Amino acid sequence: MQATAVQPKKRSEFSKNTPGDKILLIIGYVILGLFVVAIILPVVYIILASFIDPITLQNTGLTFDFSKWTTMAYQRVLSNSQIWTGFGNALLYSVLFTIVSVVVTLLAAYPMSRADFKGKAFFNTIFVITMFFGGGLIPTYLLISDLGMLDTIWAILLPGAFSVWNMIIARTYYMGIPKDLQEAAEIDGASEMVYFFQILLPVCSPIIATIAMWQFVGMWNSYFDAMVYLNSASKQPLQLVLRSILIQNQPEPGMVSDMQSTAERAQLAELLKYATIIISSLPLLIMYPFFQKYFDNGIMAGAVKG
Amino acid sequence: MNKASVKPAPKAGFNRTLHNTWVYVRQHWQLYVLFMLPAFALTVIFRYIPMGGIAIAFTDYNPIRGIFASDWVGFRHFQRFLSSPDFLKYLVNTLKLSVYGLLWGFPAPILLAFLLNRILSQKTKQNIQLVLYMPNFISVIVLCGIVRILLSPTGMINSLLGTRTNFMTMPSAFRTIYIASGIWQGAGWASIIYTAALSNASKDQKEAAIIDGANIVQQIIAVEWPAIKDTVLIQFIMSVGNIMSVGFEKAYALQTDLNLGTSEIISTYVYKKGLLDGDYGFSTAVGLFNTVINVVLLVSMNAIVKKMNEGKGI
User: Is A277 in contact with B298 (Cβ distance < 8 A)?
Assistant: First the structure.
């Protein structure tokens, strides 16, 4: 049936459109094309610029005179220990946060998905209120401080671990699982725990993967919590290291200190930004096409809720 | 559960419901203790206890003496904020940034979804989507780093224009930079939800429309728009509800000393006053003010949409 549905479409190719539609389609394709170019162009520019000698880059910009090309920026960034500490911390925080968050969220979504769960309205109200109202920065900061969590990994892992939004998405997904499955499990005498872990979770793997991906990427890319709660340089995640290089114009000390003049240091610092951007973004950008198939699942599940 | 319902319930009415609930909870204790407790505990500790901490907004908070021993000042912090000339500036900055952001940023992904839907080759469509989604995986810091590099006096934009303007120091450029980079990063990703809704549009209906000789505009009005209308509405309510919570992370990372005239928004002000200057009470008051406006906006928006949409809200 799928195949026959596609065929008439293939026959009504571009030429079958009316002149008015053709103009409209061309305008549309041009807009889309411009958008794609606008995304690719800066990325290509940064990749090229990251290989160019700092003085040339400063004075003439991009050049295809390959004698002016150098991998110096990459060597300097990659040999800097703070970058690697940042990568290590970011990976540690992101992995642990994803695990904690996914476990807590999936567990809570289960009772909320059951029609017979008593207290559902109560819990629902308690959770939904937090989506719109909160204590704000200072009260939260003081709480973390009172709990003795300042400058510890707990301040990063726990406060945001339970996501109401993801719980709603997981709950919606659970509710879409055929009821026969649960009834069959009950007849077989399976307990709730057995049903949840051995029957429900395996069929929910698409949504679990999606939520895990969101949490991982979210933690990997955020800097606010780390900026507020962590002080030690040894605990800083990648984004904070990047912040000092890219935003505050403070390259890590070892990166530029061998340069003689301030001008040279400034030019080098500028070049290092390009290489830093590429190196720090590469891991996620390489991985992302592989989990692209999970996007639609997750977004659809979210859309169903609405 | 069956055994319990066979037993005669003790009394009628309220006691009976109470009894039934108790029986249910005892039988399903795992649901409460193993499944619900972790999320509930995290919510109470990290969401509700700070709500109690809002009391700080009404005190001259002294970290050594604690909330209860600090001097009670009533609404003084609110008065101080509301009567300062900065108040209006930061409020306007916040509102302009998010309202303009909504006006430009909200239609962009819908437009992209319509355009993507017109591409017949699945392969081309997927390749374009791969590019469109990519910026979403770049972090805020790297995005702002890219923006600063491209807009620097020797950066790509100035090379193309043949000028040496320092855009990052221009207050008048901040909003454009913020909103345009937001669309660059987010429009593709945000289009997924509409693309999904569009692919749910009935194929039969669409083919019928084509056979009837409907042109593209007519197809959009009759088939495609109805398919995504509800999604658009919900996304819109949610965006309006978030108007006052315009992102701290990005605004802060795009701020320079010279563009603060437009880039200082309430959330960055709260951070600076509170954590950098240590003015806890005042900062909490400003934050509370922001949250309250946000809730009011969301509730009224939901009410309006309900009225327009025959009782359907969120």
Answer: no
B109 CA to chain A: closest CA distance, Å? Answer: 11
Other CB atoms within a 10 A radius of the CB of residue A109 amount to: 24
Q: Please name the member of A45, A138, A273 whose beta carbon is closest to the beta carbon of B283.
A: A138
Tokens of A198: 């051995």
A252 within 8 A of A241, measured Cβ to Cβ: yes
> How many angstroms separate the CA atoms of B23 and B17, rounded?
10
Domain ranges of chain B: 2-72, 85-140+168-308
Shortest CA distance to A284 belongs to which of A227, A235, A221? A221
Please measure the distance between the N-terminal and C-terminal CA atoms of chain B and give it in whole angstroms.
34
| Predicted confidence (pLDDT) at residue A1 exceeds the cutoff of 60 | no
Question: CA-CA distances (angstroms) from residue A88 to A85, A95, A238, A241, A273?
Answer: 5, 11, 8, 12, 20
Token representation of residue A126 = 């308690």
Q: How many contacts (CB atoms, under 8 Å) link A and B?
A: 259
Inter-chain residue contact B275 with A141, CB threshold 8 Å:
yes
Residue ranges of E strands in B189-279: none
Interval A185-207: pLDDT, tens: 878 877 788 889 988 999 888 88
Q: Residue A294's pLDDT is what?
A: 67
CATH code for the domain defined by B85-140+168-308? 1.10.3720.10
| ipTM score assigned to the predicted complex | 0.87
pTM reported for the whole predicted model: 0.87
Which H or E run contains B71?
Answer: strand B71-72
Q: Report the greatest alpha carbon distance in chain B.
A: 88
Rg of chain B on CA atoms, in Å: 26
| Calpha distance B88→B140 (Å, rounded) | 27
Cβ-Cβ contacts under 8 Å, A290 against chain B: none
C-alpha dist (Å) from residue B302 to B37, B288, B306? 31, 21, 6
Could A118 and B24 be called an inter-chain contact, meaning their C-beta atoms sit closer than 8 Å?
yes
